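Hi Y.,

Following your request, here is the sequence exactly as I used it, all 388 residues.
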Amino acid sequence: MVVINFSYKIENFEHYCDSKKWDTNINIIDLAITISREKYVNTFYPSDFDCNNDLHKMALGDYEKEMGLLSRVKCITEPNNNIRSVQFNDLPLYWLTSVSEKHPQNCVLKNIYYFKFLFQKLNLEGKEIHIILPDNGLHFQDVLKEFILKQNIENGSVRFNKPFINLYTFSTYLRYLKNFHGKIGEIRKVIPKVNKSDEVIQHLVFTYYPQTWKGEEIGDYVLNGIEKLAINKGKTCKYIPYFFDYKEFFNFKLSPKFDMNYFACFPSRLQELWLIKELVFLFKEISKTEYDFSNITFVNQIALKQELNKVIHDKMEFLFNYIWLNNYFSTFNSKVNVYYQDEFYPPGRIISKAAKHKANKNIKTIGVQHGLFYEAHTVYAITDNELD
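Below is the corresponding structure, written out as C-alpha cells. Let me know if you'd prefer a different format.
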C-alpha cells in the first residue's frame, strides 16, 4: 500500500490516516512536501526520485503548454466558440478560474503533471493506492484515475480521500443568488454616503481592505511607496479599497486617503438585478456547453465546469466589483495612473479588464510586481496561447 499526497493542508492527510487507523510506518509519496519525515518515517519527496530536477522541469513545461491550450479549448456544442466565449459583460469567466491562474499551490494541477512524469519511477504496480487531494481539487479525480489506470494499475486498487460531489445545482444556485442579493441590500445601508469631489487625482493605488490596508498613517503596507513618491513630487494620490468579501463593509472605516467618488459609483439596484439575471443565464450556459479536451491530459468536462461554476458561486463579489469599477473608470476626464498588485491573479485581472472595457484613454494601469519570479511559480509562465 502507498499513500500519495497532493494536498498542502496536512489536516487532509491526517484526517484520512485517522479514519483508516494507520500507524506512522505507512509508505507515503508526498508531492506537496507537507508531511514530516520525522513523524512518518517512510515518506518520500519528489526529489528522492528526481534528484537533478529534470522531471520537474519537463512537468512544468508540459503543464504550462497544456494550460495555454486549455485557454482556447473549442466548444463541441458551438464550434465557432471557445472557452473564452463564456463571458460576463465582456469578461471571460475562464480568467477567474484557478486553472487559468496556474498557482502552484492553489491549483493541484501542477503537482498532478509532476506525478505524470514521476510515475515510472514510483513502482506502484500491484499496490493499493490511496490518493489525498485537497478539497478544492476533488473535481480532478476522474482524470487522475483515468491516467493511473492507463499505467496498468487495477481499477479497484485506486482510492481517494473524499468523493467528489457536485453541489452546484440550479436550485442551490438560486439560493446563492438570493443570499447575495440580501447581502448587497445590507451593504447599501452602510456604504459611505459622501459628496462627490472635484479634485483631480493623478495617481490611484488599490489596497486590499482590510488585508493590506494599515490605516491612515501607513496606508497600504505593500504599495505605500507609490503614495510617498507621488506626494514628494507634488502629485495627488488616493487609495481605492478593494473588497474580497463584502462582510468587511460592516467593519469599514472611511479614510480621507480614499477617493470618495469611488463610493458614489457603487452599482445601482438596476445593475444588481441585471447581474443576477446574467448569472442565471451563465449557469445554464455552463451546464449545457461541452468542450474538446483532445489535447489536454488532466482536464475534462466535469473539471472545467466545476471551475467555471466556482467563479459564479464563490466569486460574486469579484463580478460585482467588476461592475463597480466599470462605473468608476468611466468618470475620469483627466490623466490618471492606476497601480495595483496581483496583476496576474483574478483581483488584478478584474481591474485590468474593467479599465480596458471602459476604453477610457485617460486611464493607465500599472501592475506592481510584489514578489519573486522563480521557475516553479507558474502564475508568471504566460504562453503565446494565453495572450489575447
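The chain has a mean pLDDT of 94.

Thanks again,
Q.
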